[in-house]
């Protein structure tokens, strides 16, 4: 197997001496006696060599030179130990010491494991077990991370027959010391017994890769990729080599060029990618001080600095570095896909050569795969570079594209230039691709993998592989955009209707879904340019639509969606949507039902494609509530907005109807509301909530106060907690602390005080670590804890300290506090942006309490590593904050309680 340290004959390094005779090892051990002194001398020699290796790497020597050198040097070290331990039996025994795994391929990075196999033949001279144990112990004493196994040839063959991973180990194993005949015997037996013939071996390796890809959600673009195992990582290159070695007997990947499976350009792309990935892996091991193949946030900034990247006005150094990595991974994954398709045709289908089925003059189907009718199709008919994807959509029985045609697409994609983009046929083909009833997501992803999408939409190529250094965005921008389109498509497909039933019903009302898909492609396309990406992207989207003959109204709709793609989620999560003024403002922003429908669907698709952990029942319910309220306002008419009194009358009427069915007299209910509940309460709650609260309060006696209720929302959007208690300034602080200790995360809080000294508090919470459905026992536990908190006369307890998750530790968000006036509702708005951490809201509650501030409403939003929380507050008299002393107290106490904990994390 070619370790790709050299594409052809690459010279040995000239700055570290000739390693052929391993002078350094010889000098260190010539006079050393056996035993501990030998091990110590070898350990010192290896340490000195590794230090020199790191120095040379820092000075610019490539890991493509250093990793094979380290393997060669470790060979010499281990060989010395072998001979020193076994003495005269070292080469004449019936045992062979083999390097396996990465060590067998001759590639050792600073923290790589050293995997060895002791292969022995019982019919030959045996080595005493004591000597074998002494040798293995010596390897550990050298400071090496050793993995070892001891097998006979028969045992190895039996294990290989049962497990292709062991068969792979034998394929790439390498002799180090001992009897050099045994490995050849084992390999000959492996072939003669037809263990794992090419067909089975390829199928098993393909299954292995699919399973590996599944662990990374089938994308190379996770926030913390594994440089070895993620799609597009080193394992993808090794996969090609394993299959080539088993089928062709190839020792080097360049052999595939000679047999026509790789072009020289493709080989050079693979070689350059491996050299780069090796450099990154070498640096990762060096920075971590151990074997570490995950590119954790801990190390990404250090890697970016090591490779010479720096921040600028548009992008962070770490984002530039990771974009280079992701683009390299993309190239590897594309070549891996094409070559495995090539292998499949050669290995699995080589005995099948049916007549092709003609599709049109340019394309035909063979063995279920699409291919061109002539190698010159793309040069003669450039528009066929888009037509191929339309044909795949229109023929769902096709399994994919033949490797030879994929290669032709890659070779001819440079034909996609300005002239191509102006061609009416090309523009029509692209729109047809976006209008098909099936296969749109697969078509766009193939276009991206084959390099067509970025050529056709140059702006899209600029976001390829672009990451955002935070915990909020789980994927690169290009991958995210394609996920958005995928999510929109799933809303439109009947078989997925149960996934998002309401969104599916709304999607059925959208007259031109392709406009939504185009908006999904363009919504983040301007990220990384500087400026407002929504505004810049809207211009790109509008120009694209106009050039493609889309009408002016529809083009404006697409541009508007791109410009406002954050508006709905921002309003839902950061503003009080029980306030009629907020709903009226949203209705004016969208203007009509079509704009509202499209924005609602795009918002859901965007959130679900941002981070798998971001979408939850609470966000789903919140967005649907905002959508419903805005739709009512639009239907009523923008010139005839509903007023607060009408909203109160409607809520009371519907709640009375519910209570009447439960046996409560309307007059009794009206009197209770008049005497106990302020008008504000009816604006902040819907009819179901009002009926639930009222029933409990009417049935409660004096001993039941404070009254606490808890139930799961019918929509599944979290747990609703209601507290009716005597008011106190620090009640919010005690409640938030109690909820934190219960393992409940607060997403929304509403606090309404009455003129009789009582408070009506509502919390919407989600389980931090869900262990099962909400049940009566959990409800009682919550109610008891919250009742105890409401009854307590003690000062708010210090928030519980919990370990800060690893990922949060490596992001440093500066705390920002902004004040705004909400004069219409007699409140002050506090916007708090800070680093998220366990128990944050409980600390905020204590800070407010220490200033005598009352929280009337709270909207809690966590954006990855960053918390963006909104609090609507008043002073102790229910008035907005007015004095400089009040603002100063809130600011200083928030900073004290919030940043103090951040400093300790």
TrEMBL record:
Biological process, per Gene Ontology: regulation of nitrogen utilization
Positions of the ACT domain: 720-802, 829-905
UniProt cross-references to InterPro entries, sorted A to Z: ACT-like_dom_sf (IPR045865), ACT_dom (IPR002912), HD/PDEase_dom (IPR003607), HD_domain (IPR006674), NT_sf (IPR043519), PII_UdlTrfase/GS_AdlTrfase (IPR013546), Polymerase_NTP_transf_dom (IPR002934), UTase/UR (IPR010043)
Keywords attached to this entry: Hydrolase, Magnesium, Multifunctional enzyme, Nucleotidyltransferase, Repeat, Transferase
EC number assigned by the record: 2.7.7.59, 3.1.4.-
Cited NCBIfam families: UTase_glnD
Cofactor: Mg(2+)
Domain (HD): residue spans on this chain: 477-599
GO function term, MF aspect, one: guanosine-3',5'-bis(diphosphate) 3'-diphosphatase activity
Homology family: Belongs to the GlnD family.
Function: Modifies, by uridylylation and deuridylylation, the PII regulatory proteins (GlnB and homologs), in response to the nitrogen status of the cell that GlnD senses through the glutamine level. Under low glutamine levels, catalyzes the conversion of the PII proteins and UTP to PII-UMP and PPi, while under higher glutamine levels, GlnD hydrolyzes PII-UMP to PII and UMP (deuridylylation). Thus, controls uridylylation state and activity of the PII proteins, and plays an important role in the regulation of nitrogen metabolism.
Domain notes: Has four distinct domains: an N-terminal nucleotidyltransferase (NT) domain responsible for UTase activity, a central HD domain that encodes UR activity, and two C-terminal ACT domains that seem to have a role in glutamine sensing.
Region (Disordered): 1-22
Activity regulation field: Uridylyltransferase (UTase) activity is inhibited by glutamine, while glutamine activates uridylyl-removing (UR) activity.
Reaction equation(s) it catalyzes: guanosine 3',5'-bis(diphosphate) + H2O = GDP + diphosphate + H(+); [protein-PII]-uridylyl-L-tyrosine + H2O = [protein-PII]-L-tyrosine + UMP + H(+); [protein-PII]-L-tyrosine + UTP = [protein-PII]-uridylyl-L-tyrosine + diphosphate
Name of protein: Bifunctional uridylyltransferase/uridylyl-removing enzyme
Residue ranges of the region described as Uridylyltransferase: 1-358
Organism: Halorhodospira halochloris
PROSITE patterns membership: ACT, HD
One Pfam family matching this protein: GlnD_UR_UTase
